Amino acid sequence: MSFTSTGPSPLAAYGWDETLENDFTPHRAAGLVPARVIAVDRGLCDVVTETGPLRAGTGPVASPDPAAAPCTGDWAALRPAGAQAGGPVVAELLPRRTAIVRSTVSRESRGQVLAANVDTVAIAVSLADHLDLGRVERLLALAWESGARPVVVLTKADSLPGTAEAEAAVAAAAPGVDVVACSAATGDGVDAVAAVLDGTVVLLGPSGAGKSTLGNALLGAETLATGAVRERDGKGRHTTVRRDLLPLPGGGVLIDTPGLRRVGLWDAAEGLQQTFAEIEELAAACRFGDCAHGGEPGCAVLAAVQDGTLPARRLESYRRLLRENAWIAARSDARLRAEQRDRWKAVTKAQRQMYRDRGRDR
Fold it and tell me: EngC GTPase domain: from which residue to which, for each copy (predicted)?
């Protein structure tokens, strides 16, 4: 239980703890109050505070960089209404313990935070659709990189006569990760899913994967909007249009997210190492330290593919995601160099103008 100076904090149900309370001491001294961002919408955000929910401005923390902008799950220092002209405003964002970051949809060399301060990433995979193990591995890399713990939830289990084969296939693509099958429609397996979730939980997956239906089953109420998938292709519409944070009845909070049409990696080297842990372990036995596993002599990874220990599909997925991550990293480095060059140009231009002005004053 987290405490304030007057007793237990109502924010404890949203994840507020002793460490956050201690770190917040200087903010309280400045007249600010703690708040958690539960949704962001058009320059404003919904937050929950020790006295209840409210809507706040984000002017002081607004940023053109999507990775630095306020996000659902953020902890914030809020300046209350009355302490200034106008309503309450987020004065500062607290450092994020974890953050799920993907490359922006526009493929710019910037990252976009999908959710902050997450403890468990529940990756929803529909058993009513084609099982795309490559997508599962991509989402796992994103989850591992965030610092949170991933869990794979096989949804719509009632649409498949037996789930053992699908569970085995996903487990092979998700070493060290809990894989649980359930049907939110019938309630089967929902308790098993709840048992492997902890703290702040975010649901990730494509439209039609059953995230919102699963979320409602976990919340115990029809809180999240749901929609049917199209019969011709099994795809769903975006019934969830923003990220909302809601308290779970058994403790912790849930963040539902819109369906992800595309999930680009963003600086996910460590996430890839954990997602493909067995390949990383095999690579340590390669003859050459810089082995690319493409035909070099003494390659332990290729030997594992040849003897059937490692599926060829798995190695190809690893290579593909490594290439993508390296490409994004290169673009990011180029952007940072360009921004630094532009800053120096601006400084130089200002200095030259200053010298010209001084010359005219003489």
Answer: 116-261
